[in-house]
Amino acid sequence: MKLVILSFFFIMSVFVNGQNLYIKTYGNKKDKTIIFIHGGPSGNSTLFESTTAQKLANQGFYVLVYDRRGEGRSADLNATFTYAEAFQDINVIYKKYHLTKATLLAHSFGGLVATLYTEKYPKNVNALVLAGALFSQQETYDHILNSLKKSHKGDSKTLNKISYVEKLDKNSAGYRKHCFELAGDNDYFKMPNPTKKSKKLYADYEASQFFKNNIRNKNAPLLFYKNEKRNNIDTKTSLKKIKDIGVPIYAIYGKDDGVFSTSQINDIKNLAGENHFALLNNCSHYLFVDQQDKFLSHIEKWLK
């Protein structure tokens, strides 16, 4: 007898302080809830939603995807882009969908949002899953610049740019922007050997309506660094506190994600614990696309 999985999705724009918050749900609301928290600032959930949300729901999870206020499809000219505002958005989701607890699945910058939220509201969180998530910003920036120095010896153009970036205020939007631009220009976010499946997932996304709605608010990082005092942080102490009070932490990273040093990967592995950690080969920053099957397998194993 064939197993038939019935999965439903529902789109809603929730009114938050006079603005619409884009939210979409996948799966059965009776299943365990996962809230995906995207990267940024100036990010959105379109890639995850296009490629992975439904497949995660097919494994028996109730998946909620949203774009933070002022980012992506949640347009808001009055957004302040602070962590407090991001927490308000998450709490609106809990209230609207009558959630008492959920697992937070956090990618990239979303890891900082999810970690600080869990530290503030631990009773709301079943588990925290860090997926290619930032946790020590300055270590990441240092690694990007130092590794490029080594790989570009004799390249005066790149070395001059690195020298320029190193002189910038490390708590500025410009410093962050240039660090990640250098990383992107040197393929730090790309898997080294794309597979047939990963190529198709990326191609399907680029041909989809989701890609057409891949909205990036270029002012978001500028306003974040203007309005948020905690703009270059290390959350390892917060993660230890979360673990100590009994909220499970899981960490899954790409072995070829160029924005994390070996030392950082060892730190997050030791913090999460051997059985709560996975490092995926031939995989970079967007691990839910690069190695989707392995990503989904680990999420199911950990959370089921």
TrEMBL record:
One of its GO terms (molecular function) is hydrolase activity. Keywords: Hydrolase. InterPro entries: AB_hydrolase_1 (IPR000073), AB_hydrolase_fold (IPR029058), AB_hydrolase_sf (IPR050266), Peptidase_S33 (IPR002410). It comes from the Bacteria. The keyword Phosphoprotein does not apply. Residues 33-290 form the AB hydrolase-1 domain. Pfam families: Abhydrolase_1. Belongs to the peptidase S33 family. This is Alpha/beta hydrolase. It comes from Flavobacterium psychroterrae.
